[in-house]
Amino acid sequence: MELLPTLSTFFIILSAILVAIGWRLVIKRQYKAHKKVMIAGALSALTFFIIYMSRTIFVGNTSFGGPEELEIYYTVFLIFHIMLATTGAIFGVVTLILAFKRNIKKHRKIGPVTSVIWFFSAITGVIVYLLLYVFYDGGKTTSLLKAILGT
């Protein structure tokens, strides 16, 4: 188990838990607590991103090290996760901006969608982590494109 991937996965799980708590708080109309928890969730997601990008830039990414016959399925799953995470991050930023600008009507519309995308992004991220570092030994650590394309 490698430290940076484990640490970054911890922060993405924490962000999803905080978003779930924030969702519950808004249902209970505890708006000040909701705001604090959602900011904490966003900061946790940002911490994940900083750790992930630092590792990507300075160390590289790890390719799939499991059985060769599963590699295509892993690759398709990884691409799906990357698209989901990118969409979730964009939606997250937009949702936060709407909240800070007090555009609550739009924030209420996009917030639940953002949360669902973020939950699936976190879940698929944990699965990627498990496939790379727990279920199988990681493959080569290499550039992002090489890790995605398996070359």
**SS field, number of helical segments:** 5
Low-confidence stretches: none
Query: Total strand count, please?
Result: 2
Strand content: under 5%
Level of helix content? Answer: over 70%
Largest sheet: 2 strands, antiparallel
What distance separates the N and C termini? 23 Å
Assign the structural class, choosing from mainly alpha, mainly beta, alpha/beta, alpha+beta, or little secondary structure: mainly alpha
**Adjacency order of strands in the biggest sheet:** 1-2
Average pLDDT, rounded to a whole number, is 92
What is the CA-atom radius of gyration, in angstroms?
Answer: 17 Å
Shape: elongated
Order of helices and strands: HHEHHEH
Describe what you observe in this structure:
With 151 residues, this protein is mainly α. 79% of the residues lie in helices and 3% in strands. The chain has five helices and two strands, in the order ααβααβα. The protein has helices at 3-27, 31-58, 71-100, 104-134, 144-149, and strands spanning 61-62, 141-142. Strands 1-2 form a two-stranded antiparallel sheet.
Topology:
Layout: H1 3-27, H2 31-58, E1 61-62, H3 71-100, H4 104-134, E2 141-142, H5 144-149
Antiparallel strand pairs: 1-2
Helix pairs in contact: 1-2, 1-4, 3-4
How is this structure best summarized?
The protein is mainly alpha-helical and 151 residues long.
Key phrases:
79% helix, mainly alpha, 3% strand, 151 residues, elongated, two-stranded antiparallel sheet
